[in-house]
Design a protein that fits this description.
The protein has 34 helices and 32 strands. By secondary structure, the protein is an alpha+beta fold. Helix 15 packs antiparallel against helix 32 and helix 32 runs antiparallel to helix 33.
């Protein structure tokens, strides 16, 4: 290719300058327009199908409803797993779509699920309500507020919450505003069962009278010559008092409803799941951001609206902040920007120290230019700023100056050797541009497995590939187009007599030791100066010569160390994703299955009283009967159940968070010994839940429980586990009425009528609706307090018969007390119990699972045929992510090999470069062990990418050797001279990359990746300079010629 882009740049300086300014401005504008969020966009491939069958037991629901839906869903073939639970009267099936499914295809799967379940609707038992579908699980409610007021009831609070909801919906970038912890209003008519029978007031009479009076019925209209006049009939209820005064015709007499029943306005009883903030009931207002919005801009708008709304509330009512994602994101972005600035300063210092001030200045100017072009690329490909893309930017920073360093170093050397600016730039293009491009593409290809990973984990980390590839490609463009221009303007002119002082740090060192300054080097015009004749390069040349001479020893030693590092890799702790650096702590409370919401609320109040005395806590919020809404994208959301409550405790700082977590865990366990408690931090990456999970599945529920208990006992024996439990299996209390069917027939009472009488008396029956403004309030009729609360009063409940008389329930039925399954979990249609546990020590889940491998294998071998024992939790999710990345490895290898063959045009030379790729493992293992960092998913991505970085340096060196051989040097001299000449750019680029990683190594999320790359790159650089020449010489059987240096 004869076209020389670097020479063209120097011949068209005005145009190049214009492009530099233009791209810089585009970059600044693009940066201001990038969407900012805490986590990358992420698709939750989950759909929930809920069905209700009032009156059925958990077992009946499981067999008649849940199993039918599961069976039909399995025919879609698009599921990763189908999990379902059955409770008395309720079935909930969770369809988790294949992890490998692309986000754009998820909507089609949801359509297919709806269609399939709709097709079997007629096969479900009579009386079933639903199925109802919900696939909106990805909404993150980053801003949560609570409206509370001691002197206000839920009705008043809701009225104000509705107004606030409407006003918040109008704020720019807001997508959804949802109210949490609402209690539906009810109008209760309470009448004693016995009293109603004595007075001869049948329930039907009340219902009939109410419906006839309160109905909205058309009365017609008059059509006159000039107008249409509507006719309206009174009777509709306007207040609770009117309901009390409603007349009833009983035995020919008219009485008022208030005379025989207590009528009052109240709320759902039993209560609905509620939200409590700092020990008080309140209504939560959760705000989510529209897709592609800017969370910081939204935060600013909400802050202004929040201040305004607080002023509109009546005295005694407060609107308070519970969760503020923009603040967390701002802190996170500021932290990353600080790290980015530190990395930039480090790279600049490396450039100034090693290249000299003027040459370093060229690299310094190229950094903002490359960053600006990268931001423009991110805007173009719709990659926003979040913790993954920001980490990728810092990761790329150490590497994106590589091309600039290589290009300017070559140009400076050639100018020192007497070339003109134009010739030096042209020579840099001819010798380094294409090896650099191939090397850049190989480094980018190192991140290719992330781009092709078809999994949630791959989707979560994909922007690493996008950002790094954009940065690398624009850095190459800058190196061949803009760096020659900057070099032309900034490099000294070596064609004049030039007195070059010794580097400033050498002069400073001499002064500190009170010694004379090193003599300056005088370059005379036209003199050919060889910078490779210094003492350092002569010493380095001897080392390389020795390595090539004793090449077999060098190769054997390297291979030995490599094998040792592979064996030592087992000592490195394994991890999936590290915990988040958010200040929130989660506290889960789980009472026994079947516990009432009142019991759960009592436990919550105990924890609230305890938390109110703790220091280092900004606030705490409790969700009773339900888990927290998704205020943080990777939150492991909990299903609604009356026996469950979740606290979100906001610590004052990260340091406080870790201390509070440790103390809370033990203290809450002592405070509530009868409740299963768990104190955990927020996760990074796809939600997992408990780190240790072992699933036991099989057809017979009794056997599954028996084996699950054996597994739990085995897990408990491990000293590193704590909080070991089964996720379900406790029976619930039940009262069974064995009806004497003969006697019931004689009295004209059916099982269905008896069930209705009991339901109406205990829970209440909906008989009509009361209309008030926008509200529709249900009117429910139920028994008196004593009949509803005291189980003993059940026997004396009066049951109306066909003759109009009543008999006590005890005469119709035998009352038995017992237990039944309160909850049944299925996984892919098999009853499944999961043994879950936390880790007591600092060990990683994979390590503990390995410790448990043998005893669990023993249990697995004893399991009956068709019964399964599977590992779940962190280890399963990690393996899924790992497998999706591994699937992209063949493509990575094919792309790299193709690029090497195009550049080197020799299978042997391409293979030599390829062989150096895995040697980075030596440094990775060494550094992870020294700094005690776990090898997680992110570190694995770093290690794969590292192989690309190593091959890049090897490629540039091999290409230089080939160029020297073609220029007429002997093979031996070409190997030594090329290595000496490439030493400085290889060491400098590695040094820039390694030192730029130091600020990133402090990050909880990217720390292990940074440490792995630092270690791998340091060792790989040494191997490139000493092992690669030896390998090349051995491969091509190079012999030392007589006239070799």
């Amino acid at each position: 290719m004869n076209f020389n882009l670097s020479e063209w740049a120097l011949k068209n300086k005005g145009l190049v300058l214009y492009f530099m300014i233009l791209l810089g401005l585009i970059g600044i504008v693009s940066y201001s327009k990038l969407s900012q969020s805490e986590d990358p966009p992420f698709t939750f491939k989950v759909m929930v199908i809920q069905t209700y069958w009032p009156g059925a037991s958990a077992k009946e629901v499981s067999l008649q409803v849940t199993d039918r839906i599961e069976k039909e869903l399995m025919t879609t073939g698009q599921y990763d797993r189908i999990m379902a639970y059955s409770r008395p009267g309720e079935s909930m099936v969770t369809f988790v779509a294949k992890d490998s499914l692309a986000s754009k295809d998820v909507a089609d799967v949801w359509y297919n699920v709806r269609k399939k379940v709709g097709d079997i609707r007629h096969e479900l038992p009579q009386g079933v309500q639903g199925p109802f579908f919900n696939d909106e699980f990805g909404d993150t409610f980053g801003n949560i507020y609570v409206l509370k007021g001691k002197d206000f009831d839920y009705a008043t609070l809701k009225e104000y919450a509705d107004r606030l909801q409407l006003q918040l919906q109008r704020v720019k970038d807001v997508a959804k505003v949802e109210l949490i912890g609402l209690q539906d209003q009810k109008i209760w008519i309470e009448i004693s069962n016995t009293k109603a029978i004595q007075l001869g007031v049948p329930v039907m009479a009340i219902q009939q009278a109410l419906q006839q009076q309160n109905a909205t019925t058309q009365s017609g209209f008059f059509e006159t010559g000039s107008d249409r006049i509507q006719v309206r009939v009174s009777g509709a209820l306007n207040s609770v008092e009117e309901l009390r005064q409603m007349p009833l015709l009983v035995n020919g007499k008219t009485i008022q409803l208030g005379d025989v029943a207590e009528v009052y306005r109240g709320f759902s009883d039993p209560a609905q799941p509620r939200m409590r903030f700092m020990g008080e009931n309140g209504i939560g207002i959760a705000v989510s951001m529209r897709k592609g919005g800017d969370i910081l801009a939204l935060g600013k708008h909400l802050e202004q609206e929040f201040a305004h709304l607080q002023k509109t509330l009546p005295l005694g009512m407060e609107l308070q902040k519970v969760s503020d994602q923009p603040v967390a994101v701002k802190r996170s972005i500021n932290e990353f920007m600080k790290v980015l600035a530190e990395a930039v300063i480090i790279v600049l210092l490396v450039s100034f120290f090693s290249l000299g001030f003027r040459t370093g200045l060229v690299v310094a100017f190229s950094i903002p230019l490359v960053l600006a072009m990268t931001f423009a690329g991110m805007q173009l490909f719709d990659v926003g700023l979040h913790k993954i893309s920001l980490g990728a930017l810092i990761l790329a920073l150490g590497l994106l100056v590589d091309d600039a360093i290589i290009a300017i170093e070559m140009m400076a050397i050639k100018m020192e050797q007497g070339y003109s600016r134009l010739q030096a730039a042209g020579h840099a293009w001819r010798t380094t541009a294409f090896p650099m491009l191939t090397g850049t593409l190989i480094t980018a290809a190192g991140f290719l497995p992330i781009a092709t990973a078809a999994s949630s984990t791959g989707e979560y980390t994909r922007s690493i590939f996008q950002v790094v590839t954009i940065a690398f490609l624009v850095s190459w463009l800058a190196a061949v187009l803009f760096v020659p221009y900057l070099g032309d303007k900034l490099l000294p002119d070596f064609n004049k007599d030039l007195i070059q002082k010794a580097p400033w740090y050498q002069r400073l060192w001499a002064r500190l030791r009170k010694q004379p300054e090193p003599a300056p080097i005088v370059h005379h015009a036209g003199e050919h100066y060889d910078p490779y004749e210094t003492r350092f390069y002569q010493g380095f040349r001897r080392w390389v010569d020795a390595c090539v001479t004793y090449r077999k020893t060098v190769i054997a030693a390297t291979v030995g160390i490599f094998i040792l590092s592979i064996l030592m890799f087992k000592l490195v702790p394994q991890q999936f994703f590290p915990p988040s650096n958010r200040a929130e702590i989660l506290i889960d409370l789980k009472l026994e299955e079947g516990a009432s919401l009142k019991a759960t609320e009592a436990a919550v109040k105990k924890v609230e009283a305890f938390l109110s005395k703790q220091e280092g806590i900004d606030n705490y919020v409790a969700y009773v009967g339900i888990g927290s809404p998704r205020f943080y994208l990777p939150l492991d959301q909990q299903l609604p159940q009356s026996s469950f409550a979740q606290f979100v405790v906001l610590a004052s700082s990260l340091e406080d968070r870790n201390e509070i977590r440790k103390s809370l865990s033990d203290q809450i366990r002592r405070l509530l010994p009868e409740v299963r408690t768990r104190v955990s931090l927020l996760e990074n990456g796809p939600p997992v839940g408990y780190p240790l999970q072992f699933r036991v599945s099989g057809e017979d529920l009794g056997l599954v429980r028996e084996w699950a208990q054996k597994v739990a006992a085995t897990v408990s024996e491990n000293p590193n586990t704590t909080n070991v439990h089964l996720d379900w299996g406790e029976p619930s209390k039940v009262i069974k009425l064995q009806i004497d069917q003969d006697r019931a027939r004689q009295l004209g009472v059916s099982s269905s009528e008896l069930a209705n009488v009991l339901n109406s008396s205990i829970l209440g029956a909906g008989i009509d609706q009361y209309r008030e403004k926008r509200e529709l309030i249900e009117i429910r009729l139920r028994g008196a307090q004593a009949e509803r609360v005291e189980v003993a009063s059940l026997a004396s409940l009066a049951v109306p018969t066909a003759t109009g008389r009543s008999v006590p329930l005890a005469q119709l039925a035998k009352i038995e007390y017992g237990f039944e399954e309160g909850l049944i979990w299925h996984r892919n249609r098999l009853p499944t119990i999961t043994v879950r546990a936390d880790i007591r020590s600092k060990l990683q889940p994979a390590t503990v699972v390995n410790e448990l491998k043998e005893p669990l294998e023993k249990i697995r071998s004893e399991l009956p045929n068709g019964y399964l024992l599977q590992v779940g939790g962190t280890v399963e999710e990690s393996a899924r992510g790992q497998n999706s990345v591994n699937a992209g490895m063949p493509l990575f290898l094919a792309v790299v090999m193709t690029l090497l063959m195009i550049q080197l045009k020799s299978f042997s030379r391409a293979f030599i470069v390829f062989l150096t790729a895995p040697l980075g493992i030596i440094g990775v293992v060494l550094f992870l062990l020294i700094f005690n960092k776990p090898f997680g998913f992110v570190a694995m991505l770093g290690t794969i990418a590292l192989s690309g970085m190593i091959m890049r340096n090897s490629l540039i060196l091999i290409d230089q050797i080939e160029q020297d051989i073609q220029a007429g040097e002997s093979q031996w001299d070409a190997i030594i001279n090329a290595t000496v000449r490439r030493c400085r750019p290889i060491v400098l680029t590695a040094l820039a990359a390694v030192l730029a990683m130091i600020p990133l190594s402090r990050s909880i999320f990217f720390g292990p990746m940074a440490v792995a790359i630092m270690g791998g790159l340091i060792v790989a650089t040494l191997l490139t300079l000493f092992f690669l020449p030896a390998l090349y010489a051995q491969w091509f059987k190079v012999k030392k010629s007589l006239n070799s240096v």
